[in-house]
Amino acid sequence: MNYINEKNEKQRPVVIHRAIFGSLDRFFGILIEHFGGVFPTWLAPVQVKVIPVSLKAHQQYAQQIKETLGQKGIRVELDDREQKLGYKIREAQVAKVPYILVLGDKEMESNSVNVRKHGEEKSETCNLTSLIENLQDEITSKKLNINKEGSLTFNKEPSFNVHSIVCGNSFLAVSRKQVDLSFNEEPRPFITLRF
Hints:
Helix content is 32%, strand content 24%. The protein has helices at residues 20-35, 55-71, 85-94, 105-110, 128-140, and strands at 3-4, 10-11, 48-52, 76-78, 99-103, 112-117, 123-127, 164-167, 170-174, 179-183, 191-194. 17% of the residues are buried.
C-alpha cells in the first residue's frame, strides 16, 4: 500500500490508531456473546436476587438477608414489588441472575434460605452461612461454569475466533475446536483479551 507524498514520491503510510473505548466496547460485546448473557457469579452484575413469598409476612426477613449478603461484598437485589411470586422468579431467571433466594415461612422459622441456581431445575434449602461461604469461594476463585466431565460449558457455540482470554488469575484458551482451562501462579487484577 502506497501513496504519493508532497514531493511526488511513493511512500508507505503509517497509521497509529488508539481506540481505548472502542476496544473496551468490542471486548464486552465478545464477552457477552461468549457467555450468552449467563455470566459466572463473579462477573454477574447482580449475583443474588432475594424474593420474599409474601411482602407482609417475609419483607423484614428478606431485607435482613439482603443486608447480610451486601455486607459480605455480594451484589444483591431485593425484589419487593407487588407482583405474583411466579412472575418474579421467572423474571429473575430471564435476567440470568446466578442465584435466586426464595424466602417463605419455612425459611424464616429455620433461619435458612431456599436457593435456586440458574440453569438447574431443583432448588435446595441451606443455611445462610454456608451459602455465603460458597458464594464467596465462587467469587474469589473466579469459577467458570464447568460441567461434570470437567470441561467448560457454553450456552451456544462461540461465533468468534478468540485465541485466549485471561480472567483474573485463570487462563482460558478458546477456539472453535478446543477449550482448555489452567491457572496461573500470579494473580492478575484485570481481564485481558488476546487475539
